[in-house]
Design a protein that fits this description.
By secondary structure, this protein is α+β, with helices and mostly antiparallel strands. It contains 4 helices and 5 strands, in the order αβαββααββ. The radius of gyration is 15 Å and the shape is globular.
Length: 146
């Protein structure tokens, strides 16, 4: 994945353990605007770098089942409290007021969700087993390119 390679050096420089998990079998093509999907993944990786302490593990993974493709960005950082998850995708939402120095304006996840909506897909957040957060993009392979 191009996005993984684009972030690999930055991750090393910042002390993150960035890895990728790809299926062993060949996947079918996904009809999407690949530039916009890269933009979504970039938002998620930048957020992981901003909110996880140095030394954290961040994993980019791809899976495909039937006509559904899932791409996840999982970390073992501090996680996101359940009461904040409902607002993460709202415009200008910045969940932790003590982290105002992150350079984030509360737009990235909102834009990422809008991109996924335009693809008739979804973007969700869940807890990573053992701690942290996992953001998952779901793309339906049977749809035509947006």
């Amino acid at each position: 994945m191009d996005t993984f390679e684009a972030f690999e050096l930055l991750a090393r420089e910042k002390g993150y353990h960035l890895s990728i998990q790809l299926p062993e079998e060949k996947t079918t093509p996904v009809f999407c605007d690949s530039d916009r999907i890269r933009q979504v993944l970039s938002v998620l990786l930048h957020n992981a770098f901003s909110f996880c302490p140095s030394g954290s593990r961040i994993t980019l993974s791809l899976s495909q089942q039937d006509k559904i493709t899932s791409i996840s960005v999982a970390d073992n950082g501090p996680g996101i409290p359940d009461d904040r998850k409902a607002h993460l995708f709202d415009r200008f939402y910045r969940g932790d007021s003590s982290r105002q120095d992150t350079g984030h304006f509360g737009l990235g996840l909102s834009i990422a969700r809008e991109i996924m909506d335009a693809h008739h897909g979804s973007l969700t957040v869940s807890d990573t087993p053992g701690g942290g957060s996992t953001f998952t993009l779901i793309l339906n392979n049977y749809r035509k390119k947006p």
